Structure prediction request, 409 residues.
Amino acid sequence: MISTFSCCLALSLPAEAAQLTDLHFTGYIRTGVGGNSKGGTQSCFQLPGAHSKYRLGNECEQWSELALEQGIKFTDGSTLSAMVMGGFYNPYGHTPKFKDSNEHGGGRSRIQQMFIKWANMPILNGGNFWLGRRYYKRNDIHMTDFYYWNQSATGFGIDEVPIGYLRYSYVFSRKDNYDQEPYINRHDFNVAGFKTNPGGEVEVGLSYIQKPDSSNSHNGWAISAQHKQLDVLGTGTNTFALQYGRGPGTGLGYTGDPTLGESNKSWRLVEHMVWQITPRFSGQLQVVYQKDIRTDGDDQRWLSTGIRPIYAFTEHFKLQGEIGRDQIKAPDGTRKLTKFTIAPTWAFGGMDFWARPELRLYYTYASWNKAAQRAADVSHPDTALSSTGEFGTDRHGSNFGVQFEYWWK
Prediction:
């Protein structure tokens, strides 16, 4: 499809006006197999109400994203490209399928991205324009896969237009997450490039969510500000973000519940750092605190702290450890979950924190309290923390297995 698009457009222009770029094949794959201490398949640990879980040795699915991209470069220096990406998901214990499974809790496949992008446009002073479904400005914490500020959506955007020393972006979208109902008009405005200190930069953003054409719905908004600092603890990066939202804006990084009115509000603090102190010693840590205030009294306070230290004994062998703790204060009590993982790792890509591929053996142990189990029984029955899950009425359990992870650009 991409090649046909590119060739048709190239043929419609003078030969000297455009040139096809190389076809790029990019992707990500995560696969493995695991079991638990009760003799069944691996069952992962996530605290009910928490927006993420600690990933190392705690992923219970196979996941891949495969993408093709090709473009046409014009004599004015701009490039028009098209990209399509398919995503394939299948949880452990289910037969892999290339279509939505009719099994309860089974796998699925979908188009993750399909968009065109016109980059380095002279009319936009070197900025970009895109249209379609796209991953866009995805700010995440790798060790928990938590996308706390994420403007991926189906829509269009004017991207990174430089005016003076700042860069301006705008996105109009209709759907920004898999479960969103109904479709909602969302407007995102971003300004980046505020230099605060050597190696440090701030970006700010405003999201406005229009009231959808449905009963008992409301407008909403959210603001975010983020500071990134390079060259921390060696060649590492530190990120600090603050977010605040009202109504449907309480989704913060996403479009929230449109039935929530203006008096419902959420705010969040995010601190995460990747370090590479020496070629052998790297890792990541995070702190997330979120407070939700709801008019129906269902207030919630979520605190998540964790660290993943990594030491490379050789160029191709690492030892990774991860400990994470989630705590939620809610009307039904204070839920608590602590998870620990140790993972000897064959690192085919080298010693760096981000180097891939990796093949990991792992052992994971977790413990949780009665409030966490009660909440799981209500909202997530048959999961690891519930009394009907793999570990029964126990409030602790362990998993073991092997996992392979690889991404390429």
Observations:
- The two ends are 20 Å apart (CA to CA).
- Residues 9-15 have pLDDT under 50 and may be disordered.
- The first strand starts at residue 18 and ends at 20.
- The CA atoms of residues 28 and 407 lie 4 Å apart.
